[in-house]
Amino acid sequence: MTTTTPKAAPRDRLLDAAAALFYREGTGTGIDALCRAAGVSKRSMYQLFDSKDAVLAAALERQAPGLEAKLLPAPDEPAGPRDRILYVFGRLEEAAAAETYRGCPFLAAQVELKDPGHPASVVAAANKRHLADFFRAEAERAGADRPGRLARQLMVVYDGASARAGIGADRLDDGLAVATASALLDAAGVSA
């Protein structure tokens, strides 16, 4: 008995292809390549989305919950604010160890697009704000003097480590991101 897997809907195939291609090749990937990878005609793509920009924004938006689930700790684990912050940097180091790692897809989109008003930049910025809000909330919970500033510093480390690992300029397998974030937490008086 042979079973076949039902083919995904065109919209899903477009979003899956967009997420993979834009992450691997960049936002300059053309519509022809996108449609070919998705197995969808350009006509069908334009019936589903107004533009390639809309596909990119939708693909990033669709990725956000899964990436967040991999990156952020569950509400009850680990319990302490310092450990919860360092958990994020540990997940970053794990992700960066993959041969296919190209950095944070949200940061990459923002850097490539350079237009904060672009639909994909808006989605990416919201995701980055959410991570900064997580850092700020944990810093406040830990009693840091300037939790907003600490959150910004942690974002600089996160984005910098992600970008450098994504372009192959640095490896994070030696604990570099966790150690750097730890130093910031120490300086801010955030202990275990």
How far from one another are the termini? 57 Å
Overall mean pLDDT score?
94
The class by helix and strand makeup works out as: mainly alpha
Kindly report the name of the CATH homologous superfamily of the domain at 60-187: Tetracycline Repressor, domain 2
Low-confidence stretches: none
Strand content: under 5%
Keywords: DNA-binding, Transcription, Transcription regulation
Pfam family, one: TetR_N
DNA-binding region: 30-49
Protein name: TetR/AcrR family transcriptional regulator
Which SSEs are present, and which pair or pack?
Layout: H1 10-25, H2 31-38, H3 42-48, H4 52-71, H5 81-96, H6 105-113, H7 119-142, H8 147-166, H9 176-187
Helix pairs in contact: 1-2, 1-4, 4-7, 5-7, 5-9, 6-7, 7-8, 8-9
Descriptive overview:
This protein has helices at residues 10-25, 31-38, 42-48, 52-71, 81-96, 105-113, 119-142, 147-166, 176-187. The protein is mainly alpha-helical. The protein has a domain at 60-187: Tetracycline Repressor, domain 2. Helix 4 (52-71) runs parallel beside helix 7 (119-142), helix 6 (105-113) packs across helix 7 (119-142) and helix 7 crosses helix 8. The longest helix is centred in the last third of the chain and has 24 residues, at 119-142. The mean pLDDT is 94. Residues 30-49 bind DNA. InterPro entries: Homeodomain-like_sf (IPR009057), HTH_TetR (IPR001647), Tet_transcr_reg_TetR-rel_C_sf (IPR036271). Keywords: DNA-binding, Transcription, Transcription regulation.
